[in-house]
Amino acid sequence: MKWQRWMGLVVALGLVVVWTTWSQAAEDTGSITGKVFYNGEVPKRTKIKFGADPVCAAMHTPPAGKPAGTEKFIFNKKSGTLRNVIVFVKSGLGDATYPTPAEPATLDQSGCRYKPHILTMQTGQTLIVKNSDETMHNINGKPKKNSPFNFGQPKVGMTKELSFKRAEIFKVKCDVHGWMNAYIGLFDHPFYSVTGKDGVFTISGLPPGEYEIVAWHEGFGEVVTQTVTVNAGEATEADLTIEEKK
Ligand SMILES: [Cu+2]
């Protein structure tokens, strides 16, 4: 047999092994899915005042741009749910370790806002901080378990790579534009999800077992904890409710 044929055979066998492992993994694991409801008075969502920086203001003034609402508390009226809630596995994983994603996470400064407002990623993963605006931004982060950072990106197109060793959730802000802030959620495993417009979270790929999941929101902190059982090949439903702070 020529070497090309041998190579072909080796590649084919490799693919079979990869596929089998992947399909077994999908069958052997389960997921947790649900909605994060909010019960209480809904604070009024106002428009961000971009006036201080003419470049920012222009991007949010019709007809060229559109106004944007404050990001701290976004209630999804139709479903009664809350957006920008991180739901993650807090305990139950034991000593297992997980590979670091090769894909970087990106925190973009665009339209004088951080996108996304809530960014989740794994420890060790690369974070690309980038400036898509033709104005000066500054990225000031004060994590407690990782090294703090504070740097400016005065020009459009600038990028900087960061990475973090320890799991925690911390705030990032821009000292030039007082309304600009974001949160970075770092986890030492891949089991986390952020609620969107529908308030839904999904955590998949979990080995069968009992887990403690937690909901975190920037206005409430770690606010709801629930114990959930995961079975292989099943999606366990777990709705969470955040109550108004009184
Ligand atoms: Cu800024």
Features:
5-stranded mixed sheet, 13% helix, Immunoglobulin-like, 246 residues, binds copper (II) ion
Characterization of this structure:
The protein is 13% helix and 42% strand. It is mainly beta and 246 residues long. It has one domain (31-45, 71-243): Immunoglobulin-like (Sandwich). It has a 5-stranded mixed β-sheet, with no helix packed on it. The radius of gyration is 21 Å and the shape is globular. The termini are far apart. 26% of the residues are buried. Copper (II) ion binds at residues 112, 137, 174, 176-177, 180.
Q: What is the CATH first-level class name?
A: Mainly Beta
- Record the strand order, biggest sheet: 7-13-12-9-10
List the total number of helices.
2
Helix content: 10-25%
Gross morphology is: globular
CATH topology: Immunoglobulin-like
Distance between the termini: 77 Å
Outline the biggest β-sheet: 5 strands, mixed
- Multimeric state: single chain
Q: Which sequence of SSEs, written as H and E, runs from N to C? A: HEHEEEEEEEEEEEEEEEEEE
- The secondary-structure class comes to mainly beta
The beta-strand count equals 19
Question: What are the low-pLDDT stretches, counting only 5+ consecutive residues below 50?
Answer: none
Q: State Rg.
A: 21 Å
Mean of residue pLDDT values: 93
Cofactors and ligands:
copper (II) ion
Count of all domains: 1
